Every structure is written in C-alpha cells, then in structure tokens.
Amino acid sequence: MRKSLLSAILLAPALALAAGSAIITLEMPVGARQLGMGEAGAALADDAAAMYYNPAGLAFGPLADEWRMSYPADSKNAPYFTSMASRSKNGFFSKSELWAGTANGILKFDGEQWVDYHSITLQGNAKVRDAVKVYAGSERGLEENVRKVKEFNEIKTADDEKHIVEVKMPWNLIVKDTITAVLYESRTEKLWVGTPKSLYRFDGKAWKSYDSELGNHRVTALVSQGASIWIGTDDGLFVYRNGQFEQKGKVLPSQKITALVWSELRKELYVAAEGAGVARLIPKKSVNDKDRWSLFNEEDGVMDKSPTALAVDSSGHVWAAHKGGLSHFNLRKWEQIQFADNTVNDISVDQKGGIWIATDKGVWRHLPDYATASGRKAELERTEADEAEGKRDDEWVHYHSGNGLSVNKVWAILPQGNDVWFSTANGMEQFKDADYQLTAFYEKLLPILNIPDLYHLYGGMTIPLNDWGTMGFFVNFVSFGSTVASGDVDADDLVAYNSSEIVGGFSYGTRFPGDWGLGLSIKFFYSDLSSGAGSGSEEATTFGYAFDVGVLKKNLIVDGLNFALVLANIGPSVYYVDKTIEDPIPLTWRLGLSYEILSLADYKWVVVADYNREVVYDDSKGNPEPFYVSCWKSLINPERGGSGLEGAKNSLMQGVFNVGTEFIYANTIALRLGYLHDQTGKRDEVDMGFGFMLSDMLQFDFATIKDVGESDGVRDGQMRFGMVFKF
Predict the structure, then answer these.
(1) Coil, strand or helix at 654
(2) Closest by alpha carbon to 661, among 612, 598, 713?
(3) Has this prediction a pTM greater than 0.70?
(4) Which of 75, 86, 579, 623 has its CA 20 to 30 A from that of 280?
(5) DSSP E strands: which ranges in 236-333?
(6) Is 401 exposed, middle or buried (0-12, 13-18, 19+ CB in 10 A)?
(7) Interior CA angle at 619 toward 618 and 622, to 5°?
C-alpha cells in the first residue's frame, strides 16, 4: 500500500474541512479583510483579493479607471462649482484633499466624501464658544455664530454640550458668499479663498479676513510664488508678502484680471487682462530692481484680447483659453488652436504634461509631442521649416457623454495627482485613475495541530488598463507540512516527505453599460503530495488548469446594493498516480450580495453575504462528470438525497454560508465581524478582524477565527495577516 500517498490525501481534506475534490488550494480563501467578514467578498470585490472572490470586481474602481458623479448639482446655466484647489499626497502617510468653491460657500473632499464642515477637537475644559471664537478669528457676531454651530452639531442643552468632544464648524460660517477663487498654499498649508467682496485665509485653525487691508474687490484669481500670493481682482493685480499688500500692473491697459499663472521654470507671472491680452511679469529681485512687463495681443499671435484662463505646462509653455479656442506660447512665438462651433471654458495641466481643455462639448486631453524627454529634445532640434510643415506628433483624446462624462458641458477642470475633477452641468464629476494594487496574505493553518510548516501564502497585483479594464496576477500557495510514514518494504523504514500546492494565474475584468462587470480568471496549478519521498516511490503529483467566470452588478434596484455570481474552478479532472482514478477539481458556484448602509464623511458601513456551493458530481461508474453537467446536476441531486422541498433544502444546506460586516471610521480604522456556517464540513465560526489605513497608499489587515460550533474546532484561534499597497 502506498502509505505516504494515503497520508497526504487524508491530510488534504482535513485542511479544507470538506471532501469530494482535489486541489484544495483552488478553494483556499485569501485576504485578511474578507476573512474578517466571514470569508465573504464576491459582491464587495473592491481590492486585489477580488481576483479570488470575483474577477468581475476588476471592472470597477478603485481597481479600474473610473468615471463617476461625485456631487450632483444642477449647473446647466451657471456653474455650481466655481473653482477648485487641491493638496496632492506629498508624503507616504499623507492623504490627498480637494477644496471646491461653490455658489454657496466651500465644500471639501477628504478622499472619500464631501464635507461642508471642519472638525475641531475640544481640548481640556474648552467649550463650543471657545472653539467658535478661535475658528472665526474674531468676536464679531460671536453669539450668532455659536448658535449656528450648536444647531449644526445638534447641541440643544448644556448636557448635550458636556458630551461633545469633536465640534463640526461649517465652512460657510465665515465665508458665506459665492466663491470666485480658491488656492491651497502647500508651503504654509493655508487655504486662500476669494469672493466677490473680499479675500479670506484659513490656517487650519482660524479664519482671517482681509477686508480692511485689501479693500472691497472682487477676487478673480489666486496663485502662489514662494512666500508671495498674487491676487487678481476686477480692479487690478495685487501681491501679498510678509503681511503687506502691494498693487502691481498699473501700467496695463486693463485692470480687470481674469486669470493668473506662475511659471516656476522661468520665474515669470502671466496675467490675463480682459480687453488687453496676456501680460508677462518678471518680478524685481531686489529693492533697486524694477518689475519688467511685456504685453501680448493679436498682433503677437494671441487669439483675442479676452483670455479667460491660463496654464503653464511642464516645459514652461504658456496656454491661454479663449471662448473660441486656445493660444499657445512656445517661448518663441504664439500659435492658435481653433475650436469651431464650441466654447472653451477652462484649461489645466496634469503631472504628466497633458493639457486638459474644458468646453461646452466635452473635454480634450492634449499631450504635446514635447511632453516627454525625447519630445523636448526633438522640439529643441526642430527647425523653422519643420514648424511650418507641422511636423509634430501630438496626441488628442476627446471625452464626452458617450465615453465617460455624464454631460458635455464642462465649466472647470483640475487634475489632482493621477485623478481629474470636472465641474460640469450636472455637478462635480471625477475621473479616478486607478492605482496599481499589490497585496500579500499569510496565515498559519490549523493552529490546534501545532504544525510549524502548515501555512498559506498569497500574493497578487492588479494593473489598470485605462478604458480596457484591469488585469491582475496572483500566486496562491499552501504548504501541507512534512509527514513521516513507514516505507513500502520495511514497516520500520520511516520516510519523510513534504506536501504542497501552488496556484498561479491572471485575471481580467471589464465593464459594460448599466453598471455590469464581467471577469475572467485563468489559473494553473501544481500539486505535490510526496516531495522528498524515497527513490522508487511513485510520485503523487499533478498539474492542470482552471477558469473562473464572474459577473458583478452595481446598484441593483437601489444604490449601494451589489449582486455577484461566479462559477469558479472550471476545468478537467486530475489524477496523481493512477490514470484510471480521476479526482474532480472543486467546481463552485459563488453567489454574493453587499449593501452599503452608511456612506458618510467619517463613517462607512457595509454588510456582505456569500453562498458557496461546490458542485462536483460523479456518473454511475464513479467518474467525475464534466463541469457543464456537474454545475447543475449536483444542485438537483444533493448528497443527502430527497425530492421536492426536502431535496431543495438538502441541496441548499450542502453549501457554505458567509455573512459579515465592515465599519470604517475616518477612512483610517476598520472593524470587521463575520460568521461562517458549513453544515457539510461541520463548521460554525465567528470571524473578527480590523484594519489600519495608514495613508492613501498602505493598508494592514488582521483577522482571527473563534469556533462556536460542536466540531473539533481545528481552526479555532487561526490568525490571518494581510497588506494592500497602492502605487
């Protein structure tokens, strides 16, 4: 008798706690996050572990590039979102933020949600009144401001106030007007806000108004230059430095400033002045020096004298937006780009050198041929004759209501890192450029057996493919440990061997209209149940392949409700030693639901449920049926038999039920709880877990099992560790 082979085969079902199929690694769940929620994840499927639970999850964000409506608002006749400023990630543990000026004040996007307030933690014996006084930066109207803050925080009595630790200060408590300009100054971490009547600054704790210093001017543009803040108004250009304001540009023929941009590469300020064109300022470098001004208009090649927006690209080229198109200054001359039968509303530049143009007929992304290093070199070498012949390799991409945007009219645009924000006729929309995700997972299996080399490892990586969806690669490995058994010839001759399985492959997911996603995984496996066995022994090894096919429907019936259906491990049967003895691989139906109960600025709460039903089935001779027969025949012929309602119940209870929940606070801490019921495998387990999101880039997860059933509880206390790294 092949004792070594029998030992390994007996051990494998014990690890799976279910019998009937081979290659149990195909069914070893992964991801400490999902395992903390009762091993449910088919309908959630929003991180790199989706490659195991449901590859259709790769069709949606955050795994895939995605267009989404972020904040609906009717803006058909005039923009609701009037201006934007952002703070991109400037360190490993930092998070990106976005401030948007609206027709009714300020809104902030914290990376997950829009909020209309700033949170302040009360220190010591501080009261709400004390916090409001600091936040407002003045005692003017203090009593009314305190009343508004208490109402905003639903503080009705003195007892309510005693229990308040965190006070929410409305952004519009101080700045109530339409926002005309917003600037986040990263060097000092201050937010500058312009309105039709004044200029404000928020330093993270308190607001300051510059009514008396600057006067009553409509602020139209803000830009920073080192320690200086340049302020464009409808009555001239001002600069703020060291607490003092100074008016500049009195020599310009028009004092109505519409846009500003600073060129850090050339240390120049470009000014759009209505009715005058584009002015260039080289600021004085010392007290004895003088400001140097130049003015460009139609005679110099500028499209018209009323530019509405300015941008400087990575090569120092200047772009000006006009109603009918663009003016481009390549540092030698101006050239024009006409947008026929269209209106250009805004222009901006992303970190890769792409020029984004917002119009009434959608958005264009223009990548000039000089945006790359080789392109810049070619530009320097390009002759005037080449310019005249138009020898360029520029790239133009058009986004509209047919391929991403919800509507064609776009008022304003702002790239933020790899993402792009759009103020449209329907509100605020976002193009979310998905990160690469790298995940790792480890668990020591069956701790009650105390076998040190019995463990499970998983690693995976997802790669977004722009409009094509997302692809991922993964490896799933299980070490079954070392087994000592008697030899075939002499019972006293002990043989030690190692057993392991490895599954590797790739997944792909793509999106279809109506919030449908389709995913496919192709897996290759190798199972070695007798590595290290003595010479002359038959090798108990096998290899083969399998497929997973999954669908995911977002927002089924109601927003936040997701539905998933997966048929996993489609593939031929395998054999180890005897070709006449075939074992099926664990063909499994996986049904999933998830529902987002809460989706607020500081709280997110989701519940999930999965049902997993293995559907292997043998014919009358004991041979495994092919998958297209097993996938339905096993359902109508459960192992416990029965007919009618009894048969349906027996078939249902032959599967594994998984339910769980996840609660996330401030996009930083996650608490998870789950339950698993497996009548066939005699498992009743409670799963508990938590996670830490240290930044937009790094997440750590932990989960453990508590056995609550009447089984031997071999998984009781089993620890799971996971990590997700985004880049």
Answers:
(1) coil
(2) 598
(3) yes
(4) 86
(5) 236-241, 244-248, 257-263, 268-273, 277-282, 292-296, 309-312, 318-322, 325-329
(6) middle
(7) 65
Number of H helices, E strands in the chain: 11, 44
The tens digit of pLDDT for each residue in 134-166 reads 999 888 889 999 999 999 999 988 888 888 888
Using the 8-state DSSP alphabet, how is residue 557 labeled?
S
Cα gap 727→719, rounded to integer Å = 27
Mean pLDDT (the chain) is 87
Segment 209-213 mean pLDDT: 90
- Mean pLDDT over 92-110 rounds to 84
CA 398 to chain centroid: 23
Q: Which residues contact 262 (CB under 8 A, 6 or more apart)?
A: 223, 224, 225, 230, 268, 269, 270, 312
For 327-380, the pLDDT digits (tens) are: 999 999 999 999 999 999 999 999 888 999 999 999 999 999 886 544 444 444
Q: Please state, in angstroms and rounded to a whole number, the distance separating the CA atoms of residues 534 and 530.
A: 9
Residue 703 contacts residue 672 (beta carbons within 8 Å):
yes
- pLDDT band, residue 442 (cuts 50/70/90): very high
SS3 labels along 452-464: CCEEEEEEEEEEE
Of the candidates 685, 684, 656, the one whose C-alpha atom is nearest the C-alpha of residue 673 is 685
Closest Cα to residue 220, out of 254, 184, 179?
A: 179
What's phi and psi for 148, nearest 5 deg?
A: -65, -40
- For residue 3, what is the enclosing H or E element? helix 3-16
E strands of 350-445, at which residues? 355-359, 362-367, 395-399, 410-416, 419-424, 427-432, 437-444
The CA distance from 131 to 123, in Å, is 9
Look up residue 178 and give its two tokens. 């339409």
Q: Which two tokens stand for residue 169?
A: 């200060």
Contact 175, 193 (CB under 8 A): yes
173 pLDDT band, cuts 50/70/90, is very high
The tokens describing 330, both together, are 């390549």
